[in-house]
Amino acid sequence: MSDSSNHFAHTAMLIRRPVSEVYDAFINPAVTSRFWFSEGSAKLEPNQTVQWTWEMYNHTVSVHVLDLIVDKKILIQWGDDKESTVEWEFKSIDDAKTFVSITNRGFKGTNDELINQIRDSTGGFTWVLAGLKALLEHGIELNLVGDRFPKE
């Protein structure tokens, strides 16, 4: 049996905006839909389940909020698997800079399946952070997630 403690995806990035603005970008679907998913059913609130939809991929996932600490942390359960979680940590560097890290845990499968899942999640969340950076720092909507797998 393999050790699941290293079965996680992780990425991080500095965003040159105040921590409150960066945090809000992930809990408020009106902002999040500008750089990640196309629609969110509601703002993230403690113990609430919301739906996030990527219309371009005809995909919706249920997200259950496990923990929110304003301007510090977001922890969600991704889908129906209680072990599949995503955690955002926000560190205010100064009044205009925030360091965000995202960790996705709960991957299962064979070694090849684990490698594929971790690689895909790390890449996906890196695109999310790059899209957020462009939006908040420069007001540009790059559509990185939507263009990742364009329809033919």
Along the chain, the helix and strand elements come as EHHEEEEEEHH
CATH architecture level-2 label: 2-Layer Sandwich
* Global morphology: globular
CATH superfamily: START domain
- Low-pLDDT ranges: none
Radius of gyration: 15 Å
Strand proportion: 25-35%
Number of helices: 4
- Return the domain count: 1
CATH class call: Alpha Beta
Major sheet description: 7 strands, antiparallel
| Main sheet: strand order | 1-7-6-5-4-3-2
Structural class, please? alpha+beta
The count of DSSP E runs of length 2 or more, i.e. the number of strands, is: 7
Helical residues, percent: 25-40%
**What is the first-to-last residue Cα distance?**
41 Å
Mean pLDDT across all residues, rounded? 94
Topology-level CATH name = Alpha-D-Glucose-1,6-Bisphosphate, Chain A, domain 4
Structure description:
- By secondary structure, this protein is an alpha+beta fold.
- 30% of the residues lie in helices and 34% in strands.
- Strands 1-7-6-5-4-3-2 form a seven-stranded antiparallel β-sheet.
- A hairpin with a 6-residue loop joins strand 5 and strand 6 (85-94).
- The model has no long low-confidence stretch (mean pLDDT 94).
What are its keywords?
single chain, 152 residues, alpha+beta, Alpha-D-Glucose-1,6-Bisphosphate, Chain A, domain 4, 4 helices, globular
List the helices and strands and how they pair.
Blueprint: E1 8-15, H1 19-27, H2 29-32, E2 39-40, E3 49-54, E4 59-69, E5 73-78, E6 85-94, E7 97-105, H3 111-138, H4 144-148
Brief description of this entry?
With 152 residues, this protein is of the alpha+beta class. The chain has helices at residues 19-27, 29-32, 111-138, 144-148, and strands spanning 8-15, 39-40, 49-54, 59-69, 73-78, 85-94, 97-105.
